[in-house]
Hints:
mainly alpha, elongated, disordered N terminus
Amino acid sequence: MLLRILKILVIAAWAVLMLDPVSAAAPTGWASEDLRLPERMNDVVINGEKTAYENVLNAYRDALARYPADAGLALAQCKFIERFAESDDLSWADVASRDFAACQSALEKQFSSDPEATLFVLENRFGKPAIDFGEPLLKSSNNWSATQRARLHAALSRNYSFAKNDTRAGQEAVLAVELDPANASLVEAMRYLVKTGHAQDAARLLAAAPVPKLLWQETARIRAATELLRGTEAIDELHRAQRAGLKIDAYTTARALQHVGDSAGAEAVLATDAASHKLESPQNQQLRLEVAFDSGNAKAAADVIHDQYVKTGKAAGFIGAYAHLLNLDPALVGRLDLLPLAFGLLAAIALVAACPGLLLFPAHYRGTVRQRIGKVSVPLFGRIGLRHAWLALAIYFVLLYLVTIFHAGTALISPTGSGAARIDWQSRLAAAYLWALLFCALGLAWVARLLDWRDWLGSGSWKLKWFVIPAGLLAVQLLASGLLHHPAATKAAPTVWAVALVHGTVAIGGIPLALLVLSVLVPVMEELVFRGCLLGGLSRHMSFGWSNVLQAALFAGLHQDSQHLVFLFATGVIAGWLVRKTKGLSMSILMHGLINATFVFSVLSLG
């Protein structure tokens, strides 16, 4: 077999030498008039290449005529043709394309039982035709080698991805990498595993895979680890690549360093590649800004913000970054080229504070109309009116907004982010939220004192049947928490910011702190704002039914969780109904706290 292939190569080399115009003809073989026309001489070379290609192809055909059962020889012929068929520079590439199609057809018909030939045909098909060709091979590939079966699964993964079937694409990618750790489907397999709640398996596959020789493949692996995995996997992979002699670019290196919290190291790496800053992508600009923030380099952050503001001319996306910048260095408030952002921040605060008026002004008008027609509204709490509702909402909105962006604000330079979230980002989010709750509590204290102990605990005669509906809501929550363990439900759970808040508070102070914050402080504060002040103020001017619906809608919308919007709305409505029945906030706070406690434990059970 080896002798036959060597013989073909010798024939091919002889054909090239005999038909190459440069070697076959003396320098004086062409007239000077021809040499003055470079286009004509280019045609001579191209025609010579085509003639050489045809001679080598004829050599393959002659060899196959003598050895028609030689699958390796037939496959070598197709691979030879493929290089010319895929060329964009050859004027006769269409000829090679037709030869390639014929070669594949012959390969499929004559050598359908040969794994290498079959895989070659599959890997040169795309979309549904490839899936239809490859799926039947899964049953007949049991006697193939592990590497060959991995190639089969990898080809199916690519084509299921092309067909927008992400689930099958991910499953096939995982099978490919488990069979062959060196398979190029590793990144696709990691994404699928993380998406389905199996991040540890993704980390295991990455650690088991050998470092690839191609730089772009290793760069993609490090970036995927930075984006998908919470631990030190990205920096570990970077060190493996460096030990293998691969030179990873500055931005990928900085992402891995930033991910593990080494902002100073990330900044130093980016500083060594300052020449590329002029042509960097939005994602890399986002990274540079976040690194400057985390390393405390206010000037570098200000320069990035200014450059992006000048480019876009839009202040809205940079207000949060400007607020965070002032948190680093308040003196930058006097930087003249950033004054438009200062005005934008003030305008945003004023707008947030004024937003409750969109609801409360119409409510006041409605109350005036009801009075004129003789309809009397019975307020839930004697000392709470619309102005208290407005001020409570303004304090709640503004302080949550301000504290969050001062501590964690950044610019929206890249819609996809930088892909370099720190492994402690959940703890940082929780810390910012705790500060927000502290300031909110201080701001709302004056409203809380307007409610006496009866308004908090409740009064009157209570009936057991009132608690059937809240108990049903808790049962729904418990059922939903159980369903979170189902693979179909885990896909969406990590995207909810409240999940990150749970993990962050646990990282800071353990489960007791998470329960204290989410099951005690948050319910007390939100019930005071929404059921005490908002519902109390609206009920003074509107019917209880409409007041309850409006406060519940606002309560659900502000949680920014579209997947559970109906459940949140139902929670708001039932909590408001409980407040009216019990004439106090205690039972709604208890129900709210139990729901949040269930959520905390369901998140922690997912890991």
